[in-house]
Amino acid sequence: IQNISTFVGAKVLGLETSNSYDTDGSIIECEWLDEHLNSVIKNSSNNCDLDNLILYGAGVYTYTLSVTDNMLDTDTNIAYITVADNSIPEIAIDGGDRRVDVNSSVQLLVNIIDLDEDNIDYWLHTLHIDSNTSDITTIETFAGGDITYDYNFTKLGVYSAEFYAKDAKDAEVHQSIDINVTNQL
To answer: Of 56, 58, 65, 137, which has the fewest CB atoms closer than 10 Å, so is most exposed?
Structure first.
């Protein structure tokens, strides 16, 4: 049994028992138990493939396979299933927070994806200094991928570059980094 990663609402693949065997007899029963020890499937053979499992919440789930042989000996094995929520867009900013010298420039590579393949309906980008009014605001419709922003800094201070995206199903995400502009690098 292997550990599995999947997405919310997707069929879980890989919970198969066809490779189960008994060295001194034969398997007469197998059973899958969920994390609450509730029986999910029970069969009077070694074929207990759990092939119709769909999980609807993000998190890590524990499923235990229990097999019994013809001498009534039992053995168990545990599978951990990690379920990610693919309905929320993701924003990745290459490099994170940074420090730059005044009168210099910095380039931010920003990647936005929506794993459930909705288009990004709304993309907002702001850059502001010391919590004051935005110096730069960009609002665009964007299908996802990489965007590069170039900034030139002529004033000292801590700038915050903020990114916000919302997809066609109104799932939204916020991400920001700080850019500390100094005259002593």
So the answer is: 56
| Contact between residue 62 and residue 76 where contact means Cβ atoms under 8 Å apart | no
CA distance 135 to 29: 68
Strands 74-84 and 4-7, how do they pair? parallel
Residue 17 is classified by DSSP as: -
d(CA 128, CA 158): 9
Helix (H) or strand (E) holding 152, with range, is: strand 145-153
List, in order, residues 6 or more apart from 42 with CB less than 8 Å away.
29, 30, 31, 32, 48
Burial classification of residue 19, based on how many CB atoms lie within 10 Å of its CB (0-12 exposed, 13-18 middle, 19 or more buried): exposed
Question: Does the pTM exceed 0.90?
Answer: no
Q: Which residue stretches of the chain are H helix?
A: none
Three-state SS sequence of 51-85? CCCECCCCEEEEEEEEEEECCCCEEEEEEEEEEEC
Question: Contact at 8 Å (CB) between 134 and 128?
Answer: yes
